[in-house]
Every structure is written in C-alpha cells, then in structure tokens.
Amino acid sequence: MKHALEPAAESLPVTLDDVRRAAARLDGAIIKTPFNKSLTLSQLTGAEIWLKFENLQFTAAFKERGALNKLLCLTAAERAKGVIAASAGNHAQGVAYHAQKLGVPATIVMPSTTPFVKVKQTEEFGAKVVLNGDKFDDTALYAEELAKQHDLTLIHPFDDPEVIAGQGTMALEMLADNPDLDCLVVPVGGGGLISGIAVAAKAIKPEIKIIGVQAERFPSLYRALHDQEYVAKGSSLAEGIAVKTIGKTTFQICRRLVDQVVLVSEDCLERAVSLLLTIEKTVAEGAGAAGLAAILTYPEMFRGKKVGVVLSGGNIDSRLLASLLMRSLIRDGRITQLWVELQDVPGALARVSTIIGSLGGNIIDVSHHRLFTQLPAKETYCDITLETRDQEHLNRILDGLRQAGFVCHIKNADTQGR
Fold first, then answer.
1. Is residue 312 flagged as an active site residue?
2. Which of 77, 183, 211, 289 has the least CB density, counted as fewest CB within 10 Å?
3. Residue 267, CA distances (Å) to 43, 244, 293 in order
C-alpha cells in the first residue's frame, strides 16, 4: 500500500521549523544517540541497515524527546501548577524524569493493573502516581478529568504538536549522520514518533520513504488508512505500540507523509528482539524491535537500500526477555526436547546418553516415564532436553539414535503421554 498524498495546500500542524526549534531546546538535555551501521544485520537481510539506538536514552526510550519539548514550551504559570500524563510505560518515565529535573510537579495516571516495578520507577522520578482504570482508555479519560479539576497541563503521549516536534528531532540526527538514506522504518502506535520523523525527513529529503510498522494485533494507522474496523486480538509483545486508535493530529500528518504501513507478526517481533540482543548486544523491547521485524518480514522491499531503523526503546521485563531468548534457541534448533522410546531394561538410557555425548550433544535434563504412558508394559520412554549447535547438529544426533534402533521424535503436543 502506498497512500496517495493529500493536496499540498493543506497545511500541517507541525513543520520542519518546529522540529528544529525543538532540537535547539533539547540540545544538551537529550542524548544524541548513536546511529550505526550493522554489518551483520546488513549481511543477513541484504539491506544496508543503520540502527538508531534510542534505547540508550536515560529512560531507555525516545519518549523523552517529546515530553521534554512539551515541558519546555509551558509558561511559567503552567509549570508552577504542574502537569499530568496517562501512561504505564515509556511516556510516564519521560514526563516524570524531565519534570523532576525542571522542578515541575508531575502526576502520572496508570492503569490499576500496572506492575509495581513500573509504579516504583515512576515514583522514584518524583512523580505522584494515581492508579485508575482496568483499561488504558479509562485511565486516559480519568487523567483528563484530573487535569480539568486541578488545572494541570495534560501531556499527551502522541497527539500534541510539541510532542510530535520533539520526536521529530530524531530524524534531524539520522539524516545529519547519513544523508544518503533511502528510507526510514519507524514503529507506530499512536503516531507521534512517525509523524515527527516524517515531517522533518520529508522536508529535508523529499524523496526519502517513510515506512511505518505495526503489530498485526494493533494496526491503528494501517486500519485508518484502509478504512477498516478495529477488531481486538489480545495482547502484543510490542506493547509500546499496542494502541487501538491513531491520534487525530498524527493521522493528519501520516496520511500526507507516510509512504507505507506494514504489519508484523508476534513471532517475527520475538525473532527481532533476539537478533538485536545476540548480534548487536543491545536490548530492545517489542516495539523497539518492530523496524527490524519489518525488514525480516518483507526483505524484497528493503533489499539493496540504505535503511534507517529506529530502536525506539529497550524497556522489557527481564523474565520476558529470558523467555524470548529460550524460545529463540528452541526455534533455531539449539535447545530441543526429545521423546525417546526405550526397552525397560538396565542400561537402555545409558546407551542413549552415550550416543548423544559421542555426537557432541549436551543433555540438560532427563525425565524417565513408566506409568503414564500408552506404550506396552515392557517399554518406557524418556524426555531429554538437549542442547546442540544448530539444526544440522540436532539432525545428526537424531539420525544417530535412529540408526541405533531407538524410536525418537522432537517432542510436541502429539507425542505427549504416548
């Protein structure tokens, strides 16, 4: 899909000058994050990939840019009264952190289901945290009510011109570091990031392509551009862009300046997070890895092009990250659970272990079963969790076991309890 551009006469709510003024305000207060070419990912994908490491901001996300720009645009009276924001994630951290540095009272409204660690982190930045609503939409409405009741300035996470201009400063940095980029690949939730980047990048280099990326389960911009109704599809690893509805201001910009929006699967988001950690040694949250996921999903779209990829954030739960890495090892054939039939005689399991060891496999765990099985009484089976170098190595071990007369399978739901 390439959406037709709107008439040029329609003025946009954010301009290149707005973004440049934002960059001047943010100078020295925001990290100008590295923008480096990834040799390995470029070889893997066939594109020349340049990574913008926004996960290296102090709060580990790009949201600081827009939050600080908005705070710096407030009048002295507005700063004295304080600000309020609705967020359970990166926007909350960005607002709270920079409000504290500027001496501005900040209230953050979070859903009642927000993990305690996120509440604590936000409070440590000096913000007052209010828990309200089981769903974020309810939380956002409550924040608006509190803003009116207490005369606080609401800092919207994406649908605000000053926030959009702040996010757009990233494009200035990327094109200054590499003016030859053919396209920019940007995660999209509410649209603040891609709107700001598109405004700046298209003004500087009109021929550059702006590609938005969304999770299949939360296609807010994609469905708006295609006039599709939203259908809830559960949760997403890319929770930072799991937004049901694109902003009004951001949509006005996106339908003019965004060239294409693509959707990526949960499996590909997982793979992208794992690749960035194993290859680039950098932690990206699901939304932060969406750009790489798009290149992995649509390689022909990017092959041979110079591609700027925004790693928008690195705030991911450590337990979830550990789980993703283990799942990645399983997908790559490096950790596997085997189901092996045995004669119920002494030494049978030892023979299996010897074969695996002689072929270079590493047994992590063994579970031997006699009772809960449908096999004959004189037969048994064992579950063996095995570490191998890759899929080819695993296949050699399977061949070795089968040549020795053992019936073995890679364990899945069909082999449970046989």
1. yes
2. 77
3. 21, 20, 9
Say how many residues make up the chain: 418
* Domains of the chain from N-terminus onward: 16-59+161-327 (3.40.50.1100), 83-151 (3.40.50.1100), 333-415 (3.30.70.260)
| Gap between the Cα atoms of 215 and 230, Å rounded | 13
Res. 4: pLDDT tops 50: no
Among the options 63, 202, 306, 411, which is catalytic?
63
In angstroms, the CA 353 to CA 313 distance is 44
> With 90 as the cut, is the pLDDT of residue 307 above it?
yes
Out of 38, 195, 312, 328, the active site residue is 312
pLDDT class of 52 with cuts at 50, 70, 90: very high
| Residues 381, 386, 391, 395, CA torsion sign | negative
63 is catalytic: yes
Query: By the 8 A CB rule, do 163 and 157 touch?
Result: yes
With 0-12 / 13-18 / 19 or more C-beta atoms within 10 angstroms meaning exposed / middle / buried, residue 259 is middle
Mean model confidence pLDDT for the chain = 89
Strand order across the beta sheet in which 128-131 lies: 128-131, 106-110, 83-86, 153-154
Gap between the Cα atoms of 235 and 23, Å rounded: 35
CA distance 321 to 315: 10
Of 233, 227, 184, nearest to 208 by C-alpha is: 184
Q: How confident is the model at residue 1 (pLDDT cuts 50, 70, 90)?
A: very low
215 bridge partner residues? 264
In the predicted model, is pLDDT for residue 182 greater than 90?
Answer: yes
